[in-house]
């Protein structure tokens, strides 16, 4: 609850002063902002992981509300969100896929897709691979870009190691 304003004397004239309520408020945005240092580290890690798959990698960014009309590519495309959000519409299956920081979308060659950038804009890393490597169907991998590189390979987490069995 905010404090009530009060009056103090200030060299010749009274002044109305309001105390500020400095309690933390929950984040109201679409996705939490990431400090620039973390964005840079996240981008470098994701780029390295995509390049290790044999992909050529580029980055791009768009402003809030920007749109891409439906189109397709002759190569497999992987998009990983580094900042903000974007929604992809896949007209063939009629699916709307919303991506946030760390999410990955695999779009096999020939997949028709449109996109709308979220309220905070978007910055992505995009990887291109020869057609046929991603299978036949689009796939969203939530949080792929946020995982530890040592525990993830090619978009799938390695299964945990079985506990060691001791014989008595």
Inertia-based shape: globular
Q: Please work out how many helical segments DSSP would assign.
A: 1
CATH H-tier superfamily of the domain at 41-149:
Jelly Rolls
End-to-end gap: 64 Å
CATH class of the domain at 41-149: Mainly Beta
Question: What structural class should be given to the helix and strand makeup?
Answer: mainly beta
Question: What is the string of helix and strand elements?
Answer: EEHEEEEEEEEE
Number of strands: 11
Give the % helix: under 10%
Report Rg: 23 Å
What is the CATH architecture descriptor of the domain at 41-149?
Sandwich
Strand proportion: 35-45%
Can you give the mean pLDDT?
Answer: 75
Description:
It is a single chain. This protein is mainly beta and 168 residues long. It has a domain of 109 residues: Jelly Rolls, CATH 2.60.120.10. It contains one helix and eleven strands. Strands 3, 4, 5, 6, 7, 8 and 9 form a seven-stranded antiparallel sheet that branches. The longest helix has 16 residues. The chain is globular and about 35 Å long. The C terminus is likely disordered.
Summarize the structure.
This protein has 168 residues and is mainly beta. It is built from one helix and eleven strands.
Topology of helices and strands:
Layout: E1 6-10, E2 13-17, H1 36-51, E3 56-62, E4 67-71, E5 76-90, E6 95-99, E7 104-107, E8 113-129, E9 139-141, E10 152-153, E11 156-157
Antiparallel strand pairs: 1-2, 3-8, 4-8, 5-6, 5-7, 5-8, 7-9, 10-11
